[in-house]
Amino acid sequence: MYGNKRVLVLGLGDSGFSASRWLISHGAEVTVADSRENPPQLAKFREAFPSVSIHLGPFDDMIFGGVDYVVVSPGIAIAEPCIARAIAKGIEVIGDVELFARSVKHWPSKVIAITGSNGKSTVTSLVGHLCESQGLKTVVAGNIGLPVLDALTMAEEDIADGEGHPDVFVLELSSFQLETTFSLHCHSAAVLNISEDHLDRYNGMDGYATAKSRIFQQCDSQVLNKEDWRCLAMQKQTKACFHFGLGLPEKVTDFGMVETPSGPWLVKGGDALMAVSDIPLAGLHNAANTLAAFALLEGAGLDAKAAIPHVGSFKGLAHRVEPVVTVNNVTFIDDSKGTNVGATEAALKGMTRPVLLIAGGDGKGQDFSPLKAAILQSGKAVFLIGKDAQAIADVIGTALPVSMHSSLEDAVEAAWQAAAAGDVILLSPACASLDMFKNYAHRAEVFISAAKQIAARQQG
């Protein structure tokens, strides 16, 4: 399909490198462009593909001349003037997920896809775990870490070696990836929730929600959060639909929760599934994530009930409400992956002990006002860092003690000095990390190191 085609790949991050490698292996004539003068993958790319032409610096119309396709990385907005002009001229602009979709369209593998503002990495990982635990050959890829075209390459190699197709692809997809995806056929697909995020790229919440809804373009079954009106508005009457939420099910196909004398249980319609207390991840938001995973399995024609025994062995994700260390009965919890307001709200609402919250960073144009109620519910004090610290402080006002800190290490130390036995020191920034750190994992490393230094100090 791409043999002898001229393809321009925009962006030399992980997905751009992956797309270039896959296209070259399939016979395309690739040119790469990155608006940065020194992208982080540059040396590695030049070593791997010394003959490929690379354009560095601001994009211009010249680089689009004579190309058959443009493959754009998720971090680059298709509203960029040069890209918009290329589209207006009829040049096809797609992403790596679209390349993947066209390649697997006639494969026997099932495709399960997940998007949403929060919880998508947890649900993607849980669905992958439940499929794999039942003996299905499962590939988890996408925004979660493994680029889809690297996953596709591995699958193609397995097929060539006679090992057969994957049984299931489980894909986490961002709104950015979905913007350039047109033909992905999903056996089941979910939008878990919609809360403010990436409003520096979209024209308001409607534009953001519309991008998320593209996951349903060619799906067999929809999975929707019945407690989120923006999700419910995406329901298509021509598709099978499974709702999930923490309330009582209204239909036999709904996944929900009921209170029993022994505590809350997850149910499908009137059928009991499992006790919430048996879910290894804390917080009711993880009960909702588990319900979404069951609904996705059911929507893809897999047996959700058969997956129940395997929920208990799921380990959860790094940097997502992850306990780090407990010192003098004060627990440090890493939720660095909480990069937007909705994620931090969920983390706070799942806490049962007083919280000293460390937050702040690059808010990406979000409205921080929804944080206030969640902070007041379980918060004891707030310690702020980063570019948008003052914006968060303005929302909280004088409701709780708030302090500003020039570094994460200083914020951790101040939270420790203010903590009492039984408290939680929670890093859940509600913001992106790039104003101060390489990424959210780097931010987590700094937090973990500071917490462990306090633990070592206390141990003498």
Automatic annotation (TrEMBL):
Involved pathway(s): Cell wall biogenesis; peptidoglycan biosynthesis
Entry keywords, A to Z: ATP-binding, Cell cycle, Cell division, Cell shape, Cell wall biogenesis/degradation, Cytoplasm, Ligase, Nucleotide-binding, Peptidoglycan synthesis
Signal peptide positions on this chain: none
Xref: Pfam families: Mur_ligase_C (PF02875), Mur_ligase_M (PF08245), MurD-like_N (PF21799)
Molecular-function annotations in GO: UDP-N-acetylmuramoylalanine-D-glutamate ligase activity
Top enzyme category: ligase
Primary location class: cytoplasm
Chain residues that bind ATP: G116, S117, N118, G119, K120, S121, T122
EC number: 6.3.2.9
Known catalytic reactions: UDP-N-acetyl-alpha-D-muramoyl-L-alanine + D-glutamate + ATP = UDP-N-acetyl-alpha-D-muramoyl-L-alanyl-D-glutamate + ADP + phosphate + H(+)
Chain ranges of the Mur ligase C-terminal domain: 319-431
Localization of this protein: Cytoplasm
Domain of life: Bacteria
Keyword tRNA processing: no
Domain Mur ligase central, first and last residues per copy: 114-296
Family indicated by similarity: Belongs to the MurCDEF family.
Role, per record: Cell wall formation. Catalyzes the addition of glutamate to the nucleotide precursor UDP-N-acetylmuramoyl-L-alanine (UMA).
The protein's name in its UniProt record: UDP-N-acetylmuramoylalanine--D-glutamate ligase
Species annotation: Leeia speluncae
